[in-house]
């Protein structure tokens, strides 16, 4: 009978042939998911045989992963700021760099005592829910144009028992009323021209969450122009953007009258998180 180690090795080789990056880690996590154990526990169980009842669902998962279904959709969860969030095709899969944006906001910005926070384009809710949990005195509003995304975000807020949070179905600011101390937004920013060269996994993210017109900045342009009307004096705006978009976004922020404009790099050095204040 095949052991866990045999299965790990055979699955890794198969995923490598299919061109999947980090094939071994992918296979480990799929086995852990199937056996409901941690990666550490898996190492201690390498010699254990796997029977058909465990192998059959693993084969299905492996086949889907080989076809480019993202690992996060197969596992159903993703860790963000040390919490597990459900993820599926209703919204963008949370990315590690967005976690860095949460960290910058939590650790480097001084917010008023009980801040009013808006997460515009909340998707799965990772930013808004993380801010609500980390800043219990905050009142957080999560907005999205997608009702699918909102249903996922609400599910995550319930699972994580975030209570200082509400959800609004809104096309950018159309259903929002003002008075925020912080508006954070991970809006779609991928240029339409990049579509042919994107990794196959991105086909599983909703188009609505990814693409922002020819240069990627269509939605961000409108967002920046409208944001000041919804910010308190001294309020902060913080965004996530793509590679090489920082100069254009900084220009937009400055033309709209924002001050203290600063773009923070992500861990790979890409200028990824523009921030600014309303004077
Ligand atoms: N970071 C994502 C990607 O390029 C895009 C996310 C977004 O458009 N907000 O894979």
From TrEMBL:
Methyltransferase small domain segment(s): 102-194
Source domain of life: Bacteria
Catalytic reaction annotation: L-glutaminyl-[peptide chain release factor] + S-adenosyl-L-methionine = N(5)-methyl-L-glutaminyl-[peptide chain release factor] + S-adenosyl-L-homocysteine + H(+)
Entry keyword Secreted: no
EC number(s) on file: 2.1.1.297
Keywords: Methyltransferase, S-adenosyl-L-methionine, Transferase
Enzyme class, spelled out: transferase
Keyword Transferase annotated: yes
Listed GO MF terms: peptide chain release factor N(5)-glutamine methyltransferase activity
A Gene Ontology BP annotation from the UniProt entry: methylation
Domain Release factor glutamine methyltransferase N-terminal: 8-76
Binding residues annotated for S-adenosyl-L-methionine, in chain numbering: 121-125, 144, 186
Role description: Methylates the class 1 translation termination release factors RF1/PrfA and RF2/PrfB on the glutamine residue of the universally conserved GGQ motif.
Family classification: Belongs to the protein N5-glutamine methyltransferase family. PrmC subfamily.
PANTHER family: HEMK METHYLTRANSFERASE, MTRF1L RELEASE FACTOR GLUTAMINE METHYLTRANSFERASE
Protein name: Release factor glutamine methyltransferase
Annotated source species: Rubritalea squalenifaciens DSM 18772
